[in-house]
Write a structure and sequence with these properties.
This protein is mainly alpha-helical. The chain has 17 helices and no strands. The longest helix has 29 residues. InterPro entries: Amorph_synthase, Isoprenoid_synthase_dom_sf.
């Protein structure tokens, strides 16, 4: 595989050479947010297991095994270390639901995007119109929607539903991109990844954890909107680094590291290094803008942005240890 001089320079270690991709990522990724963990993680894990069982989502042994390897409550605990147990449970349930939904949508969409339409339309009808569910996945989503409505203000619940619909719509873009005839470069991959990240639906829950609802001028401030985009992108791109080997083996297309590999026709370690550089720039911009806007924010506004930062931090520490991504951690880092 060929690499440019710039790529080789980026990949050259300035410390002890990394033995595997996990070490390569750790040596190069900029992570200014320290590890934190919610003390109610074990209760949330038990709650997730009960909730998935209630709606029949883990009746399939493959789904149960996926949840065991994914540890959604652990991700929730790392992302939301200060949330009260009730709200943390909603976050954990939603993470679990999205993993089940996303994996099924990817499987169906890869075989035939058209077969994905009933599944997506059911979700949109539930989120937009409160429509009745027709499948176990739909029933779980309807219950999740109810939980959000009971805990959040009407405006927060409406934002949650809107952001969730965008995530659902994005899965159709992913299915089209998985078609073998469609070349997916790094720019197009980032655009689709933004749609299917599934992170922004959690931001209204971050807001619900604050003392009061954010004022419109604060919530819709241009810098606040930019912070939302930056944090969601960084939060989902970091797991892309750790899932690269898994996705490569499965023939996945929408992964930041794999997109760099296709674009530059380079080795996976070089592609991961290039992706890390892009992520580092995103995190540094988030830090800079937060530093500028922070003094103007209310206490609830500060807490809201801290919730966004929590997703960047949480996705990093979760990705490093979750069994779902163990293959990347052990993959050789030789360039």
């Amino acid at each position: 595989m060929s690499t440019t001089h710039e790529e080789i320079a980026l990949a050259a270690p300035d410390k002890i050479p990394a033995v595997n991709l996990g070490e390569l990522i750790d040596q190069n990724l900029y992570m200014p947010f320290p590890f934190q963990r919610n003390p109610h993680a074990s209760e949330a894990a038990a709650g997730v297991a009960n909730w998935l069982r209630k709606w029949g989502l883990t009746d399939d042994p493959a789904v149960a095994a996926m949840i065991s390897c994914t540890r959604p409550a652990e991700l929730a605990a790392y992302n939301s270390p200060d949330m009260d147990p009730g709200l943390l449970q909603i976050v954990a349930n939603q993470i679990a639901y999205q993993f089940v939904f996303d994996d099924r949508a990817e499987d169906v969409g890869r075989r035939s995007p058209g077969r994905l339409l009933p599944m997506l339309c059911e979700s949109v009808a539930i989120l937009r119109d409160g429509g009745p569910p027709a499948t176990p996945l739909g029933a779980a989503l309807a219950d999740l929607h109810r939980q959000v409505q009971e805990r959040c203000t009407p405006a927060q619940a409406a934002r949650w539903a809107f952001n969730s619909r965008e995530y659902v719509h994005g899965l159709l873009y992913e299915a089209v991109a998985q078609a073998p005839s469609v070349p997916v470069g790094s720019g197009l991959c980032r655009s689709i990844r933004s749609l299917i990240a599934g992170v922004e639906p959690f931001y209204p829950l971050c807001e619900a954890a604050q003392p009061c609802e954010l004022a419109p001028e604060e919530l819709h401030h241009p810098v606040m909107r930019r912070l939302s985009r930056l944090s969601a992108d960084a939060a989902v791109w970091i797991p892309d680094l750790y899932s690269a080997v898994k996705e490569q083996r499965a023939g996945g297309m929408i992964n930041l590291a794999l997109a760099y590999q296709r674009t530059h026709r380079c080795s996976l370690p070089v592609a991961v290094t290039l992706a890390v550089r892009h992520i580092n720039g995103t995190i540094r911009e988030f830090e800079e803008l937060y530093g500028e806007l922070g003094p103007e924010l209310s206490p609830s506004g500060v807490g809201y942005v801290e919730g966004m930062a929590g997703w960047i931090r949480g996705c990093y520490f979760w990705s490093r240890t979750v069994p779902r991504y163990a293959a990347t951690m052990a993959a050789p880092a030789g360039l």
